[in-house]
Design goal:
By secondary structure, the protein is of the alpha+beta class. It is built from five helices and nine strands. Helices cover 34% and strands 25% of the residues. Bound molecules: zinc ion.
Length: 171
């Protein structure tokens, strides 16, 4: 990720902190007030019904239309989660590890359609994966630990809908 983007992100985090964030981890991308049911996302086709966004085989004809929080975050490149991968082992097995990351995401996507990867930014010393929700980082971390052990740490922000995680393995 470019430094400019990072600064912009930080600026927006501050903005949201001061204006929108309630004491709990309120997601500023979540519609305020109640969404009509059913509502379909005009971008990804996820359907909001029974209180959650779902992946349905067919969209109800009377569904209202709105862009879902995950698509909005993808547009804005404004992640809810971030996982940093580092270490010698990671460097030596990058392709395999990125494939595991992508598979883990796609295996859960029918159950969690708003849980997506925004970007895998592969830097010189580490790679940073950004996500559209705060749950995918934990699932990615568990998959990495299960496959390769290593050390996984995760920290949820206080009062903000954001999670930061890292996975590291050297040898
Ligand atoms: Zn969507």
């Amino acid at each position: 990720m470019k430094t400019r983007d990072l600064h912009r992100m930080e600026a927006r985090h501050d903005l949201m902190k001061s204006h929108l964030i309630a004491p709990h981890r309120h997601d500023p991308y979540k519609a305020r007030g109640k969404l009509r049911e059913p509502t379909v996302c005009n971008r990804c086709g996820a359907v909001f019904a029974e209180g959650r966004w779902q992946c349905l085989d067919s969209v109800p004809v009377d569904a209202a239309k709105q862009t879902c929080p995950a698509c909005l975050r993808e547009d804005d490149k404004y992640p809810a989660g971030e996982v940093t991968l580092s270490g010698k082992f990671f460097q030596n097995h990058k392709d395999e590890i990125f494939a595991l990351i992508r598979n883990t995401q796609s295996n859960q996507s029918s159950e969690h359609p708003l849980s997506r990867i925004i970007e895998i930014a592969d830097g010189r010393d580490a790679a940073v994966i950004t996500t559209t929700d705060i749950h995918l980082p934990r699932r990615l971390g568990h998959a990495l630990e299960h496959a390769y052990k290593g050390q996984f740490h995760i920290a949820y922000s206080e009062g903000e809908y954001f999670v930061k995680a890292n996975w590291h393995r050297d040898a």
